[in-house]
Design goal:
The protein is of the alpha/beta class and about 400 residues long. The protein has 21 helices and five strands.
């Protein structure tokens, strides 16, 4: 007997001996796939495992779909994987396994076939739209890659259709998020964009130059704060470059995760570059974030207490706070090592939110000071044990 080829989920498959455990494993694998689209070997392993699970659950249509996907994924892999995929497809469909010669033409013949493909007439070129509309996504992907016509755009379009066509709404949402993130990385990274163009690499963006590395797709705030700690002299430039970077991506989306570096630039330095960058954001949702009274108030607190080490500011403490009435918070460490939470309220807070806001503030920081609260929030905060501070005091 030959050695098993697809083994990543072998232990889990062996342990899934009843219907609930098989369904749970299928859901786990389906959720894993969208966030690991670049792992080609892992996608093949996942297709194999799902085909096995659906076959065991007697869902022949899904089992065949996954098995055919596996055949497509390993068509350029080694012989053992191709044969294992063919065996699985034959098993779940009940059809005879293809002969070895028919599985894949020799490399020389395949190269000639691909070379001949380049000379086909327009009438012989596969219709990508027809393939996608009929749900033949694997065939469409192969055709797009072989034809070489605007391949990144074509693959994104095919991926969008595949995600929208998924029956499981959770899986569909996960696939859409993964596709969005992948497109964002391609659009916002000059180095990756240059890789798709027949020209030299684009120069590093101002933010990349300041960070000394490519702009991370995730955890940008952490990268900015780490760099600011290494080079305090760059805080103003970092904040300005980060604002300009986000402005180019999507100025219509607030970026409260930039509040830490922006607040530090405005409070600890003259902030000339940061103020100019904020000026370029006037009239956008991104700019409005840093015009909110709570943020402005906490920046003033930071500026008057340079001895404090601060974490924040952070925007909002409840999920359902209105955009124009969010409470901003700051956690500060005083010279004696003790910590205290500082919160700045908007001019007016919905009355029904006041008790929950007060309770949440105490939950976040048992020692908490609230600045400039309206009477309704002030009463709720005082009852919850929050210290109140009004006027110009900090």
């Amino acid at each position: 007997m030959s050695e098993p080829v697809f083994t990543r989920w072998a232990a889990q498959l062996a342990a899934a001996t009843d219907s609930p455990s098989r369904r749970a494993l299928a859901k786990e694998i389906a959720l894993w796939r969208p966030s690991n689209l670049s792992d080609a070997a892992g996608q093949a392993e996942a297709a194999y495992a799902l085909a096995r699970l659906f076959h065991a659950e007697n869902v022949p249509s899904q089992a065949e779909k996954c098995a055919r996907e596996l055949v497509s994924l390993v068509r350029d892999h080694d012989e053992n994987e191709r044969f294992a995929a063919d065996d699985l497809l034959a098993e779940v469909t009940g059809q005879p396994r293809p002969t070895r010669a028919a599985t894949r033409p020799p490399a020389r013949e395949r190269t000639r076939a691909e070379a001949a493909n380049a000379g086909r007439s327009a009438a012989e070129v596969p219709d990508l739209a027809a393939l996608v509309d009929s749900g033949r996504y694997d065939d469409a992907t192969r055709a797009a890659r072989q034809l070489g016509v605007r391949t990144p755009v074509a693959l994104a379009w095919i991926g969008l259709h595949r995600a929208l066509d998924a029956r499981d709404p959770v899986l569909s949402a996960q696939m859409l998020v993964a596709l969005r993130d992948d497109l964002r990385r391609q659009v916002t990274s000059p180095r990756r964009a240059a890789a798709n163009e027949p020209k030299a690499d684009a120069p590093a963006s101002p933010l990349e130059q300041l960070l000394g590395r490519p702009v991370p797709a995730r955890r940008l705030a952490e990268a900015l704060e780490n760099r600011a700690q290494e080079r305090p002299d760059l805080i103003d430039a970092l904040a300005a470059a980060a604002l300009d970077h986000h402005r180019l991506i999507d100025p219509g989306v607030p970026a409260p995760f930039l509040a830490g570096v922006v607040g530090a630039a405005l409070a600890r330095t003259p902030g000339r570059a940061t103020r100019k960058a904020l000026g370029r954001l006037k009239g956008t949702a991104l700019g409005a974030t840093f015009d909110e009274p709570g943020f402005v108030r906490l920046v003033a607190v930071l500026g008057t207490a340079p001895a404090m080490v601060a974490s924040g500011p952070r925007r909002g403490v409840l999920r359902d706070e209105p955009d124009g009435a969010r409470v901003w918070t700051l956690r500060v460490t005083r010279p004696d090592g003790s910590t205290v939470g500082v919160a700045a309220a908007p001019p007016e807070v919905p009355a029904e939110l006041a008790p929950r806001l007060a309770a949440r503030l105490i939950q976040l920081d048992p020692v908490c000071t609230l600045l400039d609260a309206d009477p309704v929030l002030a009463a709720a905060a005082s009852a919850a044990g929050v210290t109140l501070l009004d006027g110009g005091a900090a």
